[in-house]
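Service request form, structural biology core

Requester: graduate student, group of Dr. S.
Request type: structure prediction, single chain
Budget code: on file
Notes: please return the result as structure tokens.

Sequence provided:
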Amino acid sequence: MNRRARVNNALAFGLIRAIAIVFLLLVVYVLLYTVVQGWSELTRGAFYTSPPSTDHAGSGAGPQIFNTFYLLILTVILTVPSGLAAGIYFAEYAGTGRLVNAIRRATETLATLPSIVVGLFGYALFVQATGSHPSRLAASLALTVIALPYAVRITEDALRSLPTTLRESSLALGATRWQTITRVLLPAALPQLVTGVILISGRAFGEAAAVLFTGTVGTPTAYANYSLSPFLPGDSLAVNLYVFRSQVEPGTVPDAAAYADGVAALLILLVLVFNIAARYAARHAVRRLQGAI
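Core staff response, request fulfilled:
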């Protein structure tokens, strides 16, 4: 490598490192700023247990914390099996026909829809068309519509990125196609699949518009709703943040801004802790599963 090429290479790597450092500092700044702004609420015990109120100060986020994790778990349960099955079909069985390509394009288009459009669609389909009312089940179904295209695409890409020798070796040893998929390909693609589940979970954590239309009647859950019934309404932390930042009058609730800052800080910390814990648990699970095969 001549001197000019080495200089260009060093400049390119230096520029990439500088951009990465800038983005890292930006993320750290946003995290610290949000936590500092909401620190007074994060250190208040009633903030984690009391229900919110739009007519007096001292609101908490207990029901919203419960509903956020409830919606997350229910959405993952609805999304992962169907997304995994569809991704396996597209990667291993569907081929490249016109109909299959059209379905792929439709899936990619669905992934780009604004969440508010999905919320209106979910309200029309899961609430009005069924003669029901906003509920956590309807909100989870709307979140599934948002997350499903990502699950399908991640599964398909993860399986297609595997070396073809894995398939050929398994089939050569006498395994059926289904045995090859379940016992060879899926374990090999587990790291990518786990990353996809984490991304889907993060999207469900922070989604507000879809839950606002399908999971609640427009006001925060004003009671400690810790029931496991999916047919009860329930708003999430993201919806609560929107309501207290945009709809609550400061004259009626003097600490509305401080409460919203606390909810924002709690939401970011929960997403951060969840991602770290999920990656740590998934890493150990992947090692044990791959080591046992």
